[in-house]
Model the fold of this input.
Amino acid sequence: MNVFYTGEIQVVYKEQKYNMIFDTGSTDIFLNSVLCKDIGYQKGNQYNSTLSPTYKNIDAETYSYFGSGEIGGKMAIDTFFVSGQEVKKVQFFQITKDFGQAFESGQFDGLIGLAFPQLSGNQKTIVDYMKYQGLIKEKKFSFYLDRKNESKESYLDFGKVDKKIVDGEINYHQVANPLYWSILAEGFLLNDYDIGLCSNDHKCVLMIDSGTSLVTGPSQDMQILTQYLNDQGLQCKDISQMPTLTFIIDKIYYHIQPEEYVITFKGIEQSVYEHNKNPTECINGLLPMDIQDTLLDSFWIIGDLIMSKYLTIFDMDKLRVGFGKLKSYDKDFYEDLNFKKNILNFFFLIIKNYIQILGISKQSNLQFFHKKPA
Done:
């Protein structure tokens, strides 16, 4: 039912490759290492500091919580290669211990956080390093996440926005709290009906998180929404009758169709993250999650359900998020650095983790593209 997006980086040498999740919902960098003896980590590529001439040790450790548990890390500094560009003296955490199942599958080797530095004690992000070292001119990056299993068109672009693939204008929205990539919605509709969840007087905070596949919202709001949906015993044949969800942001309407928020699958072992032609079971992908924020309330998390429909721009310099409707584009403009499609049974993981959504959940496929030199 769910997929995650991974992009390839290299550490120390271009031959040492790691498949990483690029997560706009967190800030730190975690890299699988030989210091972690858990079985899941040994399935993937493991960083070994003793083999690196550029490694520097930092006497600091951390523990970070994700929906599936905690991971422990030991701080280090080393050289990264991102999109073929050498990024020097990157501070990151070598994973030392997994207290849950965050990386158990072994299908990815770490996590690169792309949220704001303030979220983690002003820890620099990979975007900061690239800007300060002159590799990019602006602290911005753009995603296109393609949810089609047969497609290989997802990409992440640092430092620029390719407007040639956008149909019309890019709509920008100011960040509500510069810890998260959060924007404010003044309205929420089921079809054309306002059910009162978001208003000008009580705006909903939408966190745009590349690490989340489903839609989460405050439990009280989700209870109201579920009552309106009345989807108990949802039959797959009824999907077309389900309402369209619409968030209104700065008077712009963003729609999520029922075939996008209803999860269809042919059984847990064969679940996919897209609408099946002949599904046997269906369930809505709306989950309650209460997130405490000192500045904001009514906190929702939306990931690819929005990001897969638009070129999504994260602009750190101007504190804004942009959405540009995609048009068909000529892939000759791009050079594929690496793309790997990993299908992970997220529904099964949710059950195993007692209906806890993975903080780094986005498990689908990310691919790096950059423009070929002229």
